[in-house]
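**Paired protein data**
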Amino acid sequence: MYARIVLAYDGSQEGQKALINCKEMATWGDAEIHLISVVPDVVVYPVGEGSFIDTETQKFENEKSQHHLDNGVDLITKEGFKCVGALLVGNSVKEISRYAAKVSADLIVIGHKHHDSVFGRWWARSTTSNLVEESPCNVLIVVT
């Protein structure tokens, strides 16, 4: 059914749940799983009327994301599935969509946590809903 599944993964509880669901779906058609993690291109803190770019925090975040990604790839390959890991840099929605198009993905799987308040749902800009709008293929949102 699916030849290539892209799983957007950040090591969070939502990402872990999406990872578990993705492994189950991969058995449907011996799919190749592309486990990806996206980090922002820069970490910027507002300071007065200017901003401060924190290169040390950026380096730490990249290393942490690479570690989570490597662990996720290990989990999937130990289960006997084909898995490719990729650490991407930039806007999450754009990078996930771009990567899915590049590998001709049939499905993107992403975890999502519900916001408790109506105001929280309204205020938060959702990566998942924006991804649905920009995705080149089907999107499965795993709700936690």
